[in-house]
Amino acid sequence: MFIYFIFGFACAIGHHAFYASLNGKPANDQFLMLRYGTVLAFASKAGLSVAVIVAFQQRVWTTVRRRVMSIAALDSLFAATEDLIALLNWELFKNARIAILLAVFVWVSPLVVILTSNTLLVEPRTIVTNTTCPGVRTLNFSFEDTADWRKPARIDQLFEIPASLWNTTKPEGADPPEGWFDYYTAPSPSFQRTATIGAFLEQAVMRKNAQVETCGSGWNCTFEINFTAPAYKCTELASGVGSKPVNLTQESGGSIAAPFDTDILLPKGKYSYYAFTSGGEYSTTQMKDVGIGGKPISDPPYPKNFGALRTEPVVWIGYSNIADPSKPVPQNPSDPGWDTAFIPSLFACENYESHYVVTFNYTDAMQSTKVTNLTFLRPVVNTTYLPHIDADDGTADNVTANPESNYIFPQDVARYRRTAAYHSLGFMLRYFLNGTIEMEDRSLVNPVANTNAIQTKLIDPKSNYFPRPGLAGLVQNFYEEIIMSMLGNPQFVAVVWAAKPDQQSGGGKTFLPFDEDEELETAHGDDGDADEDDGERFLYPCTKSRTANMYHYNVRDLWIVYTIAILMSLVGVVFGAMAISAEEGGKVRDTLFSSIVAATRGPALDKVRWEKHDGSFLVGDDGNDGGSVHVAEDVKKLRAGYGLLARGEGFGSSVIGLSASSASSLRQSIKRGGYYYGFGLEGDVQQIRVRRGSTVF
User: Fold this and answer.
1) Domain residue ranges of the chain, discontinuous segments joined by +
2) Residue 639: what pLDDT?
3) So where does this one cross the membrane (predicted)?
4) Hey, which end of the chain has fewer CB within 10 Å, N or C?
5) Alpha carbons 602 and 198: distance in angstroms, whole number
6) 20, 31, 36, 479, 569 from 28: Cα distances, Å
């Protein structure tokens, strides 16, 4: 009994330990793990149940030694753990309450297996781990400083692509004269394509297979990169009907007036969107007479400002928003409320070299970006454009700006090339922004768009193509997304490894490191394969996450079940131990066939007529021996008990008290065969209780 209890308790502990070891782990081999848990639960239930069954057997014998009950009640008592119907005998609840409670536990013990099986669940859970990721890229525009379009760098057989196209003054020939230089022409076709895709997608372009390469299959990931790149700094100059825009004061010390005011915007004017972005734009025709590749026909020396980046155009945008979108908008200027139905605003944006901190997130094959910090460092070209003033400097570029000393010249190669890259990025933004949206018939229907902005997220087609609220911030964000779209094509010169910003990544495989002592063009040899160990050099801090089926162990539920079961089993064991201690000599009883035969031997029960009234002896319902055997109903009403029986006439009284010396003499008489233990009818059997110092019959 005690061993069974300890075994059941140990299996419960093992069940807990097994489930605890699975908690929070991926739900692999679910059915196998649940089977293991069920085996442990069944073993625990079996151990605790058997311990109670043994205790029940001891209580049965204690009960029949102390109580006289009907034969029917004795039948139910001995069958209580085998026949559920036996528990319905009311006499048992009067004379054998403890035994019945133990039997009830045996019947409900299967609930241990049923209830504990539901404590190990499988649930979707997001796993988050701080680790490192391969394939993370960032931008480093210092590589534009040295990018040579004549000898482009090549990584994994793919050429690096600059952001700009170039013309040159260098004549053909092996020994050109000194003083030649390359000068800027326009954004490169590759960058124009990338910027256009980003504008149409309304988000930064994602590199193909970026999530798998960076996060790994089945994972999402987040990482933060920082880099220096251009950004537009926008300043509001006017807001409200009739407001007059203030001048834009620039870092160069100059001040410039807006080229238009809010009167051209709704409600006074007819435009819902008006953008002027070409003031001071670099002319792609620097000299009138040039040959192939932009080489001037004339001989040097060339004009001083030939190819110079004189200023960076300011973006001027005026727009009107509907004051209250929840209210009907007046359809005609003569309608009441027309003058208050729209809010005109005007702002200006300058191109600044800036420091970015950007968070990238890859989730379910989708990329999202967020600029968490943006610090404006300096203007890309620190001059103030002077409109309506001719340059008259011998070039075809009629742009004048102050101070001229801040012009950036082609002879300053590194600075010029990087500024040209910044200018190319800004040019693509201005290309999309420039133009107008006009409400031609003033009835707010059929707006006339003369701008590429209508193809971007800046204009809301659901609101009759009015600009979206907060347009200045959206313009800044739009430019940021154009710049970050460069990461979608790692062949761009400025794209580098985030872990090693001084090394270009190339557009080939995930890991394309090269030996710093070798030339970039031959970084990986002819086959373009990188060493496997090189990947570790480019691991970058990131946070990986994924939603997966995980094991979840309900410790509380399991131990509620086991605590109840163990306590009930322990109580049963205690009652069983008390029953054993009540036995003379502390003997353990059982209900084996041999024990029942031994308890019913002798002539004490021979006087009972066990036959049915038809005279047949223990016959079945069908009249044949071996059928369904029944004892006569009147016999079942007889009361019997277990105790001491005399081989003669019996004791003649129900209770006899003996002294300790008399009890000793009785034991000797039992040994000589004068008395024996067994079942007998009420009046024939004397039930004993062992107490310290005496025996009571």
Assistant:
1) 1-129+551-591, 162-488, 602-697
2) 67
3) 36-56, 68-90, 96-115, 559-580
4) C
5) 104
6) 15, 9, 13, 46, 35
